[in-house]
Design brief:
Blueprint: E1 9-13, H1 18-29, E2 33-38, H2 41-53, E3 57-62, H3 68-82, E4 87-90, H4 105-133, E5 136-141, H5 154-174, E6 179-186, H6 192-197, H7 209-220, E7 230-233
Parallel strand pairs: 1-2, 1-4, 2-3, 4-5, 5-6, 6-7
Helix pairs in contact: 1-2, 1-7, 3-4, 4-5
The structure holds NADP nicotinamide-adenine-dinucleotide phosphate (NAP).
Residues 13-14, 16-20, 38-40, 43, 64-66, 91-94, 114, 141, 143, 186, 188-189, 191-194 line the site of NADP nicotinamide-adenine-dinucleotide phosphate.
């Protein structure tokens, strides 16, 4: 039976394009009320319109996750408009790449500020709402660089390792409150981010954003008896384990 998320409210960060867009659309198709957030309102409105055109419910809310004020305002909006939060998918992210010894501090701050600090702030806000209802699911989109290391990717890799550390601690802290916390660690997915960062990769050989959205639906479809801490999902022709 297809997953039914009717009555659930889901916040998806970085929902304007790429993996976040696919996750938002999949959650909308499953019946969730989707709050699609990122900085580019035009893209968010297009995603919300796609969900609504398919019979779902979605709103677009602009927020820059580098701003603690924007994050607080986002969740205050969810609280006032819907009064509950069932699912948070922390997907927003950005990559800046280059040799560690020459890496600009401004780029380091931006990468850590959005990928790690932004995720942390969203988790805090969401957990406060979810704890009141003693239920909820937080899914953090980390990366294969959440456990591996590649050249030219030190800041991004450090931030994604940080996301994994955060995920592990929150999973333990929030379990007694009825809240599940998991991470998805994708390898290469055909999105704007990868096309810019890795022009050497053939887009046709990469996973599609929908493959990651499917992993999100899988986590949400688990029975109350089961918990999956992390999913490492990679291109089929890449190195296993
Ligand atoms: P993408 O196409 O570049 O999309 C990134 C999304 O994050 C956009 O919607 C962007 O919207 C949003 N975002 C960026 N900075 C933001 C900020 N300061 N505040 C709010 N939103 C912000 O990238 P993607 O490939 O889909 O990546 C999605 C996630 O998957 C990221 O966390 C990435 O690290 C992870 N990931 C990707 C791959 C891959 O191969 N593509 C692999 C592993 C993990 P705005 O610019 O409009 O704000």
């Amino acid at each position: 039976m297809a997953l039914q998320l009717n009555d659930c409210v889901a916040v998806v960060t970085g929902a304007g394009r790429g993996i976040g867009r696919a996750i938002a659309v999949a959650l909308g198709q499953a019946g969730a009320t989707v709050v699609a957030t990122a900085r580019t309102l035009e893209q968010l409105e297009a995603v919300a319109a796609t969900i609504r055109a398919a019979g779902g419910t979605a709103v677009a809310v602009r927020a820059d996750l580098a701003s603690a004020g924007d994050v607080a305002a986002l969740f205050a909006h969810v609280e006032s408009q819907f009064g509950r939060l069932d699912i948070l998918v922390n997907n927003a992210g950005l990559g800046r790449f280059g040799p560690a010894v020459e890496f600009a501090i401004s780029d380091l701050d931006q990468v850590v500020g959005v990928n790690l600090r932004g995720t942390y702030l969203c988790c805090q806000q969401a957990a406060r709402m979810m704890m009141r209802r003693r239920s909820g699911y937080i899914i953090n989109i980390a990366s294969v660089v959440g456990f591996k290391g590649y050249p030219q990717q030190s800041a991004y890799t450090a931030a994604k390792h940080g996301v994994m550390g955060l995920t592990k601690c929150l999973a333990v802290e929030l379990q007694p409150h009825g809240i599940r916390v998991s991470a998805i660690l994708p390898g290469g997915v055909d999105t704007d981010m990868v096309r810019a960062a890795r022009p050497d990769l053939d887009p046709a050989a990469l996973m599609q954003p929908e493959d990651i959205a499917q992993s999100v639906l899988y986590l949400l479809s688990l029975s109350e008896r089961a918990a999956v801490d992390q999913i490492y999902i990679r291109r089929r022709d890449s190195q296993p384990f």
